[in-house]
Design a protein that fits this description.
Layout lengths: L1 H19 L10 E3 L5 H12 L10 E3 L14 E5 L12 E5 L4 E4 L7 E4 L1
Parallel strand pairs: 1-6
Antiparallel strand pairs: 2-3, 3-4, 4-5, 5-6
Length: about 120
């Protein structure tokens, strides 16, 4: 029984992983107006457009898009920036991702979902 249960768990994980990456997630359906972003996100967006300075050491690093939730581009196309989360001591879950084409995406759940920022 224990072997069968392990088999079911492994099969469930394998099938779930296969389906998680098989659907087209290359286009973000949701968008948000920049004026509707939290104040901290609007401040971060201004810093990005001005080229800094950025408050977090990791701001500006390459965003890998490993989950493929943003449109597919070569590695290095996207950069990520931290959006301060007032009630958190660490960097928190909020980020803005910028693309080389001038597009910006906001996530408030640490890359689980994105909304394209419209000016």
């Amino acid at each position: 029984m224990l072997i069968f249960l392990r088999f079911l768990i492994v099969a469930w994980l394998a099938i779930g992983s296969a389906f998680a990456f098989s659907f087209d997630r290359s286009a973000s359906a949701d968008s948000v107006a920049s004026s509707d972003l939290p104040r901290e996100a609007r401040q971060t967006l201004v810093l990005i457009k001005e080229g800094g300075p950025f408050p977090y050491e990791r701001d500006g690093i390459t965003f890998g898009n490993f989950e493929k939730r943003l449109p597919l581009h070569p590695r290095g196309y996207y950069r990520e920036y931290t959006v301060k989360t007032p009630w958190r001591q660490d960097r928190g879950p909020r980020r803005i991702i910028s693309g080389q084409g001038g597009e910006y995406y906001y996530t408030d759940d640490h890359y689980r979902s994105f909304r394209r920022i419209k000016d």
